[in-house]
Design goal:
The complex is a heterodimer of chains A (about 170) and B (about 600).
Chain A: H1 22-48, H2 60-83, E1 85-88, E2 92-97, E3 102-108, E4 112-118, H3 121-125, E5 128-135, E6 142-149, H4 150-165
Antiparallel strand pairs in A: 1-2, 2-3, 4-5, 5-6
Helix pairs in contact in A: 1-2
Chain B: H1 22-26, H2 31-38, H3 44-62, H4 83-105, H5 112-135, E1 137-140, E2 144-149, E3 155-160, E4 164-171, H6 173-178, E5 180-187, E6 195-201, H7 202-220, H8 229-233, E7 250-254, H9 257-265, H10 271-280, H11 285-294, H12 296-308, H13 310-337, E8 341-345, E9 348-353, E10 358-364, E11 370-375, H14 377-381, E12 384-390, E13 403-409, H15 410-420, E14 430-431, H16 435-457, H17 479-491, E15 494-497, E16 501-506, E17 511-517, E18 521-528, H18 530-534, E19 537-544, E20 555-559, H19 560-586
Antiparallel strand pairs in B: 1-2, 2-3, 4-5, 4-10, 5-6, 7-8, 8-9, 9-10, 11-12, 11-17, 12-13, 14-15, 15-16, 16-17, 18-19, 19-20
Helix pairs in contact in B: 4-5, 9-13, 12-13, 16-17
Keywords (chain B): Membrane, Transmembrane, Transmembrane helix
Pfam family, one (chain B): bPH_2
Protein name (chain B): YdbS-like PH domain-containing protein
Chain lengths: ~170, ~600
Amino acid sequence: METDSPPPETTSSDNLRSLEPSMRTVWAIKRGVFVAFVSFAVFFYDLAHLFGTSALPFGTLTGIVVVLGTAYALFWPRLLYRSWGFSIRSEEIYIEHGVLNHVRTVVPLRRIQHLDVSQDLLEREFSLGRLVVHTAGSRSSDVVIPGLNLKEAERIRDRVKQFILEDPLMEDPV
Amino acid sequence: MSSPPSNGPNPSSSDAADPPDHLSSDTERDPQTSSRDAIDDRPDESASASIEEANDAGDADDSDGREPATLGALQEPQRLHPLTLLQRFLASLPALVLLLLPVLMNPSSENVFYLFMTAAFGLIALPSILLQYYRFSYRLTEKQIIIQSGVFNRQHRSIPIERVQNVQIEQNLLARIADIAKVKIETAGSSGTEGVLEYVSLKEAHRIRHAIRSFQRETVGETAPMVTPDIDTEDGAGEVAAEEISDEAEILFQMPLQRVLLSGMFRFSLIYIAVVFSVFQFFEPDTLLNYVLASRSQFQAIVDAVYASPFFAAVMTVMFAALFGWLTGIAINLNRYYGFHLWLEGDKLRKRHGLFTVTEGTIPLKKVQALILHTNPLMEAFGWFALEAQTIGLNVDEQGHRVIVPFAQLDQVRQIGKRVRDFDLQEPFERVSPLTIRRSFVRYLVGLSVIVVPAAYFWPPDWLAPMGVALPYWAYALTPLLLLWAYLQYTHHGYAVDDEALYVRRGVIGRYIWILPTEKHHVFYTRASVFQRRLGLKSFFVDTAGAASFAYPEVIDVPENTADKALDQLDDQFHTLYENRIRAATGSADTRLSADERPQLPDDAHSTWADE
């Protein structure tokens, strides 16, 4: 706990919190379902061309898709998970993520319009929540931190809400 | 933030099933009324009842006596001006003519169908105009504008007055003759216009706008300067003159006719092509073809000339197209900016312009999110610029909408811009990394190859292949142009950071300079793709409210350190600015951030909440 200190560095990737580890599983399941659908489609394509004059032997295409898809479903979430980091600082929320595209986002707490905590079916099973931060900015009016412990997400939400409500500057929200 | 986050939902999403929210927000009403309102999609009685109830609520509000004199009858549910009916009827005439067109052109018994359709149209469309008119009502309270409309889908829309960004009054030629006007009420909630009153009398339009503005001033409090006291004391029923420009209003900019024409000469528009085609589609192709064939002898000379010299013909075509485009540009500009006036009225900008359609709008200075200097190579060569104000709630696609200075020399634009928001253009701008040329060039080349290679692969060998090379490959002749384009993009891309703002310049043909004031920054971003990281580059971007989605001020390909430093500086400036403001407002530093309070929002470097 320090007094009015120099503003936090926005670029240091140290001291970042990572998401809940179970988020990897959630991502893997979601991707797995997607890959399964695609594999089935490709499999039926293969089946339909079983007696045609195909250049590839039966099942090759399906095999390729299944192998690549499995790799995608199993390993990509790990990379994604490793790329995710965030930190709630005294004046701002800092987020970095992205495997191919590294995106770093700084949302000043003063700029937050409102916050949601949301869950989808799968996330509910793992009691994960995602924090959705709405700003008035136009290109990306909501910034999302997925894979938080639900309780924790709610706690962050309440604290940031408190910060907003205590704003001494009664001015236009935008 | 004056309003709690719960105020956020945009009013546009209301439909018949929604319980009207005016009851809950106007006054604290018992739940019975709102449950009664939930079945409000039934016919008249309940609807009118709800209007009256809301009205009571509005009256209750008045009792504290803060109501300005101009409000008057606006609190009663109002209908639109009766001439609206006539206008809508006239507007439906072209459709009628279209339906009748086949009959008119070729009267025969086969065309009874169209007559029938026309009759059906008349029986349905005309009554629906009437019904819509009778179902439409609007009224103002101190806190909101309430618009009820809809024949089958009843809509109840309430727009919080404090959220109103811009009140625009528009008069087309017809409306001007009839002395009526369209009022557009725009808010931050959505990208479009939220409330449209089409049409009310011009006097009423001014009264509505005036009432909205004075309510806003009241909610803002005493801090806003009362610049137009004469209007405030004016009685609504009296002379809210069509002019309504107070003496205090300072004229910032106006364009005499010559200037408007001159500005048109720098604008080029090919819209006439679209117009020509849209007219053609109403004609039977066969008839058209027959006509052309029949009159072939008249065109024979032209056809011969084209055969004699295709090159000459092509040049002439292009020149004619250009000439037409140029003339269209002048005409469009003349129509749009004729009689352009921009005033500064205390804390808001007001502009009025237009030849056939006169538009009048006000933009509060506070609501200006960014300034944009806009030019093109030709205009820039002669030193001409346009100034636009980025606000939220305005339709981004609607051209000329946000323009506050359509055409002026840089110095003048600067002077006017400074009245809106102080800025200091720092020339020359910082360049981005020259590596960006290479990156863009490679990207264009890959893009070109994606088109060319498959096309060449499937190109039949006996098709066009100049000098034995399949035609698609000839597209690679454009390569030097791509390189040139990448280079030009680099030279026209730049940025600057000072104490007040971030400046970003982009664009080769449409050239933009964004002035993004620190206090309007919202979210700070950096982005680095795999390729950028390999070259040690980064892009950065500061999000502002109301930024367009297609051309936005991202600074692309800056050395990583530089980008981080620039963004850090902007971020710091932002926090310092607001800390100073809080200090000024409360006399102390932001208590939310003080050492005692900090455990509320721990810095992750020192504690994690998971540990608690």
